[in-house]
Structures are given as C-alpha cells and as structure tokens.
Specification:
mainly beta, eight-stranded antiparallel sheet, seven-stranded mixed sheet, 1 helix, elongated
Length: 264
C-alpha cells in the first residue's frame, strides 16, 4: 500500500511513571519525524572496506505549535504550572490624567500592604519621570496613601491639570498561575503519543495512524519571538530507550489502524 502523510492531529505527552496526562498540543503547523544512524567500517589494506557496522541509532520528532502551551513550556524548564492563591507577585501599572483641581487619584485594585512606595509624573514620552515618595501626609515631595480607600493624595503643587500620574504596584489576586525556571532544574521526559492521518493514494481514504514513543526527552531550547507576527512554539522531542528491566530498545512504533475493528 502507498500512503501520503497528510496531517498531525495532536501530540499527547503523559507522565513517564504514572501515565497521567501532562500536555496535549493540538495547534500544530508542521511535523517531522527524524532519524539517523552512524556507520563504521572494518578496513583492510589501502582503505578497502571489509565490513560495515551500524551504531548510534537515534530518532526524534520536531514540530511547530501555532499557540504557546504553558504545560509544554513547564516541561521544557523542568517545572510545573503552579496555581497561586492570594498572591501579590504580579506588578501592574496604572496611569491617571489629572483633572483640573484634583488633589487625589484612586487605584483600581487593592494594593498588597503598603506596596505603593512611589508615584511618578510622566515625562514628554509618557514614561516615568519625576519621582515622589510615600509620606505620612502629602507635601511638596511626598504623597499620602490610604489603603482602606485605595486613595493616593498627590504631592502639593506637583501636578497640574493634564499631567499624568504613573503608579506601579502589586494588587492582591485571588489566584494566578506561574511557571518557575530554576537554574538547577532541566527539561523533562514523557510518554509521547502522536495522532495523525495517512491518505491511501489509491482509494484517497483517510487512514488513522499513531506514533508511539515509550520515552521522549523534551528539548529545553526555548525561542519565543513576538513582533509583527505571533510567536510559534518549537517542539523538539528526542526518542530514548527505557532502561527498566524487561523493556526493549524500542525508539518508536508506528501503528496504522481501523476503528471499525475495535471491539464494542
């Protein structure tokens, strides 16, 4: 039979030990199966090749995902996607245009503790310029902050109508997610399942196939570039043999199947 390798539906990554689902990548733009081996020769006089031996067989898959999957990013840095509750590590910036006669501005969110330490007057480029520090009461060089009302009393005579106040602070979030990239943690391995389609070149019927990697080492190389186009996430997984007792040296297995043959 002859087939065209048509389309990859998804890549599923499970925990290597527990088989629990970790990541599903289903926005794949392209996909490639790579493989190679090294050949060494027994040579005789004048460099004549007497025999050939193949060693160092390797296999891998590469792809591009059209979206950035946080679960895969966590696997790349050897981390987990952690849900933080009642946290305040996220910095936000608010900007307020001072209206005529206004002596104060009110933050949109509740700051963590006395987190509002500085306020700034925007310069001609709209960036933080003159800085004012927190004081007990407002003065020429200091502002006051009432945490219970989120109100900032501006320094006296420092801002006029049309000026912009810039404030950086950390609100309290009920929850958010974070991924930590630690220098002493590295990319993980997992069980890899690739769901794809062949097309029968004679009947033009789509035939499902599944590529199975018992152990795939996820590359820790990260290159996310944003600009005039949205970033794509590079996927690179090297097939490894498992060293557990009784397991073979299998790098991958390709299975072509027909669901009509599945027992119901």
């Amino acid at each position: 039979m002859k087939y065209a390798f048509k389309k990859v539906r998804r890549i599923i990554i499970n925990d290597l030990a527990t088989k629990q689902h970790r990541v599903t990548l289903n926005d794949l733009k392209n996909f490639k199966i790579n493989g190679s081996q090294e050949t060494v020769y027994a040579e005789g006089r004048d460099g004549k090749k007497l025999a050939a031996f193949d060693i160092n067989k390797v296999a891998s898959i590469t792809a591009e995902n059209g979206s950035v999957d946080e679960g895969y990013l966590a696997l790349q840095v050897g981390s987990e996607v952690v849900k933080v509750t009642n946290g305040s590590a996220v910095l936000i910036r608010e900007e307020f245009e001072v209206s005529d006669g206004a002596a104060s501005v009110v933050l949109s969110y509740k700051a963590a503790g006395d987190d509002v330490r500085y306020i700034y007057k925007a310069d001609v480029n709209g960036l933080p310029g003159d800085v004012y520090t927190l004081g007990t009461t407002a003065s020429d060089t200091e502002f006051a902050y009432a945490a219970e009302t989120k109100t900032i009393t501006l320094p006296t005579d420092a801002f006029k109508a049309g000026d912009t106040v810039i404030i950086d602070y950390h609100p309290i979030f009920k929850e958010y997610e974070e991924i930590t990239n630690d220098a002493n943690k590295f990319s993980m391995s997992g069980e890899i399942i690739v769901d794809a389609w062949f097309t029968d070149l004679c009947s033009e019927a789509d035939v499902p196939l599944q590529l199975y990697l018992p152990k795939g080492k996820i590359s820790g190389t990260i290159d996310l570039s944003a600009g005039d186009q949205a970033a794509v996430q590079g996927i690179e997984i090297e097939s490894m043999t498992r060293a557990c007792s009784g397991e073979t040296g299998n790098l991958w297995t390709l299975r072509k199947y027909d669901l009509s043959n599945a027992e119901k």
